[in-house]
Specification:
about 30% strand; about 240 residues; about 30% helix; alpha/beta; seven-stranded mixed beta sheet; single chain
Amino acid sequence: IYCRNHVVGENRIIINAHMDTVGSAPAKIIAEKTKDGDVEVRSSNNQVIGGDDKNGVFVALKLLMDKRIKQPLTVLLCVAEESGCNGSDFAMTNHSDYFNDCVFCITIDRNGNTDIITQNFDIQLCSDEMAKTLGEWGKDFGLRTTEGSISDVSNIVRALKINGINLFAGYYNAHSGKEYTSIRDLSASLRFARYLLPMLRGHFKNNPEAIKYTPKSAYTYVNSRGFGAYRNYGTQWDYD
C-alpha cells in the first residue's frame, strides 16, 4: 500500500511498516494494566499477537491521519517482510518512481523501547554524520543508536539512495506465544516519530547535500577454512 498524507510538496519522509505477522493460530487478545500504570496487550492462549508489526502499522496510520503534521509524508505498508523483506523489494523494484521525492525513511519495526537502528545486518542505513545527529536527538527521549538485524528499510535506502532508520515499536518477545505490546512504549514510538519529522525537515533544508546517501555494506566477506563467511559486528558466520 502506497499513500501520501495531506501535505503537498517534495522532500517527503517515508513512514514504513509491514502488514504480515508470524503466527500459527488466532490469538485471544487481552489487555492488562500493570502495577506501574502501563497497559500490556497479550494473548491468553499462548499465541502470537502480531505486534511485529501491527505496532508499526498503527504508528504509520496515526501519522498519516494527523492533520497537525506540517511535513509531507509518504507511507509504505508492505507485505511479506517476514519471509525476507519481499514486499519492500517488490515496491522498490517495480514502483520506486513513486518515492523519488523522498529524502528519509523511518521504518517502525524494532522490539523494545530504546533503539534507533542505524545499521542493519546487511547495510549501514545512514551516514556517520546522520547517525550522530539522530543519537543527539534521541538523548532526551532516553534512546540510543545501535545495530539491528534485517528490516524493510534496507531495501528502501539501497534503492532510493537515502538515509533511513528502524525505530522501536514497543513490542516484546516477537514470534512467540509470550509476545506482548506495551501501550506506553508504543505511544513513545509515535511521539518520537512525530518529533523527528520537523527535525529531519529542518536538517535537510539546511544541509541539502546530506539527502543523498549511498548505503555501505555492513559486513566484509572473508574466506575461512574453505567456506565463504560474512563478518559483522565482530561475529563470523560460515556458509557452504
